[in-house]
Amino acid sequence: MTSKAARSRSIKSYSATAVALAATTALLAGCGSSKGDNSSNPLDGGKSDGNTVVVGSNNFAESILIADIYGEALKAKGVKVTYKPNIGSRETTYGLLKNGSITVLPEYNGALLAYLDPKAAPKTVEATTAAIEAKLDSKLTLLDPAAAQDKDSVTVNKATADKYKLTSASSIADLKDIAKDLTIGASPEFQTRQQGLVGLKSVYGLEFKGFKALDAGGPLTQAALKKNTVQAADLFTTDATITKEKHVVLQDPKNLFGFENVQPLVYKSGLSSAGVAALNAVSAKLDTKSLLDLDSQVTLENKDPLDVAKAWLKSAGLG
């Protein structure tokens, strides 16, 4: 796994979900998980009383939404839960987990591994989990990964998908004969990275007509893809503009962009076996399509993330 995963996740935290998500993030600390539960300072360092699971989240909207899903799933099994939403970056939340100030945190396996071991390059989800476990603080553990991934992708706009008959079942490899007619947009670094044009050529045999330097899946890239300034772009797989603009995310069967599965990171002694089972049940149900839909409800429809979380859990038979 390259350090791209860590940088991508950090960039996404602050800018890659565009203006609507940035505005939503600013509001979420005061709604969603904090509603009727806990409004204390997330950095106060106060530990659980031993009978309460503290569910934390990083400072971007999707993390807060997933934390709400985790917390409400635990509540449905009779676990007492409080929330510490919108805490900050991984550097902060990892420390709070280690000292027991928070019990559960939504993580992304590839980005977490890049944080713990930037040189690691696992080839499977299972190997990613094993590599993380080898580097984790002894007081922490990972639960089961979800199928849901929020990672870099090659995404084409609707006009391009219609023209070349590309669907959500199509793969990056399906661009091999048409890439010469397409311009792709992404961050400037994408042009020289293995998880970028270099890998697209060496792994999938793609040579694009042109490259346009934009931003890391943010508003510049979103706008260029919408306006057809670029026909393909590096977007995150749960970016709500995919739903809004009817873009098509191409499958990555050779895992060029690594793994970014949603996975609970847990303070071992703070979670019961019933709690473990509840979170593993969430992971068994949550896939990328579902997470994209949930993100879209929050960012495009301005729904309260707690309400979105509860509705999804009920529909999945977990609420």
UniProtKB/TrEMBL annotation:
Domain of life: Bacteria
DNA-binding keyword on record: no
SUPFAM superfamilies in alphabetical order: Periplasmic binding protein-like II
Pfam family, one: OpuAC
Signal peptide: 1-29
Keywords linked to the UniProt accession: Signal
Official protein name in the record: ABC transporter substrate-binding protein
Span of domain ABC-type glycine betaine transport system substrate-binding: 52-314
